[in-house]
Amino acid sequence: MEKKLRFLLLGCALTLCCGAAPSADPGKNPPKLTPPPIISQWKEKVVQVAETGEFSNISVPESPKSKKNKKSKKQARSNTADLVSEKGKKFFWKPSPLLSSAIKLADLTGAALSEDGSLAVVTERIGGKDKPNSTRVLLFDISRRRLAGGFELRKERISSIAFLPGTKTELIAIRGQFDPFKTKNGLVRIDLRKQKIVDTFDSPENKRITSFTCGKAGKIIFSTLNSPVLFEIDQNSFAEEPVPVKSRLSSPKVSANGELLVVYSKDGVETFRQDEGRWIANEKLSTFPETFEPVNCTITDSAVPAICFSGAYEDDLWYSRNGVFRKIQERISGISLWDGQQKNFFAEVAANNKIVIFQMPEGSPLEKSATPNRLRPANRNGSFAFLGNRALKEKIVQIDDRGNVFLLDYSKITRWKKYVVYIADRTGFR
Fold it and tell me: Which partner from 191, 203, 305, 337 sits 20 to 30 angstroms from 353, CA to CA?
């Protein structure tokens, strides 16, 4: 008890001594207290692209090649699909859903076919509408009927793709602006072998590009939103200054075939022809007989000229021959294709996705039509694009609105055949 009392008294004495210690000199400034560091809980927001859709692959051991296959491989050395396909792999793709669609169709933005008809390229948006985006590029080997590869263009909004004339593995595409990623409106050149963008062109005044067309002698002509001025650039030299081409239409789109340039909008149609390397407008400006806003233009004969114009979904199909317009089909889907070899123009009707065929240059419909969706494997899906050229002869690549890819053989108009290239989504199949 005495020990505890001693310790208690000692503690009190120490406390009194500390309290009685002399203070600092009042003539000097008291020491400044350093405030504790403020730790901010706010971090700089990093813009991320939401992962939509799926794309993967697995390694597949190659089977022994027969002599026949070796021979065909040697013959196909210049085949575009062979140049970009990844060997020894099997690819799987589930498209990104179009979130604005009630039935969630595939969020596709473009489709193109190589000049030799061996490769179809499809682009899809990753991330959703009005959000940060990337673009996935899918490669389909048409001759072998398979998904042959693909890659992603990070933080890029790409649409309206087309193969550059004279190149086997390069695309031209429209690029959309997105400030957080420091991308501007313009055009990009994509190398499928390198799987990346190899050149870019920024649109004048950063205006959104609404359409482009590949003209003669390696030139690209494009239009911009709400502007009557078109621009022409060299496809091999994006760094050069674009050459302006003035149109009489306020906000037109463009299409070209050889030396004929067609400029069109709801206000009418204007044609240009080249003279010593310059585009010279024809004096006559044609107008549609009734209210109509063309979305797509297909030149079937550049000499006459003869041109087909399609509008939005369930709009009409108009045919202009030497400036005289007539309606040749009502309520089409907007999907069409020109077969220059057989002189047939294919257009899909909105109802039942039936394909109607017109013989050109007369523009008269053939009696026989086709409904590819009734051919096996039958489905209720609509079309996203028709692709074809002389190299495919009497065949069409059909890409439906869920990303499924088919090859349609119309060598016998009365009896079409349908082959599967790739099934991405079975929704809508019967």
Answer: 305
Rounded to an integer, what distance in angstroms lies between the CA atom of residue 254 and that of residue 222?
7
The one-letter code for the residue type at 275 is D
**How far, in Å, CA of 224 to CA of 251, rounded?**
7
Q: What amino acid is encoded at 68 in this protein?
A: K
CB 430 within 8 A of CB 420: no
State pTM to two decimals. Answer: 0.86
Model confidence pLDDT, tens digit, residues 31-50: 555 666 655 555 557 889 99
pLDDT in tens, 203-245: 999 999 999 999 888 899 999 999 999 999 999 989 999 999 9
Phi, psi of 308 (to 5 degrees): -105, 140
User: Which tokens go with 354?
Assistant: 């039936």
